[in-house]
Amino acid sequence: MIDPKCPDTITPVIELLEGKWTLLILRDLFNGLHRFGELRRSLHPISPKTLTDRLRLLEENHIVTRTIFSEVPLHVEYELTDKGRRLQPIFAAMREWAEQPCPTAHTAELQEAQA
């Protein structure tokens, strides 16, 4: 149970993670570091601007780190920080919850009858 007197600490997290692209970016980064182009191909049809904006937001919130390699050609890699990796069990729990069968009215009636 959440104490109604406590400040709402969940809202900023939801605001950070809202939107389809942010969750999909994190999904890809849970599997290891990626270059910008790899993320863009994986998340097609995301626009380069949207991907850049989302990655910057995640970087500003210390969820993702960006490493620039000044070789030719220049490339950039993104990976999760420790803070970002701590989101993985939350995603796993959400996936597990989503995979549970949705009880129907008939199922509820059967359970009540068996009780």
TrEMBL record:
The keyword Transcription regulation applies. The keyword DNA-binding applies. Residues 6-106 form the HTH hxlR-type domain. Keywords: DNA-binding, Transcription, Transcription regulation. SUPFAM superfamilies: Winged helix' DNA-binding domain. One of its GO terms (molecular function) is DNA binding. Pfam families: HxlR. Signal peptide: none annotated. PROSITE patterns: HTH_HXLR. PANTHER family: HTH-TYPE TRANSCRIPTIONAL REGULATOR YODB, TRANSCRIPTIONAL REGULATOR, MARR FAMILY. InterPro entries: HTH_HxlR, WH-like_DNA-bd_sf, WH_DNA-bd_sf. This is Transcriptional regulator.
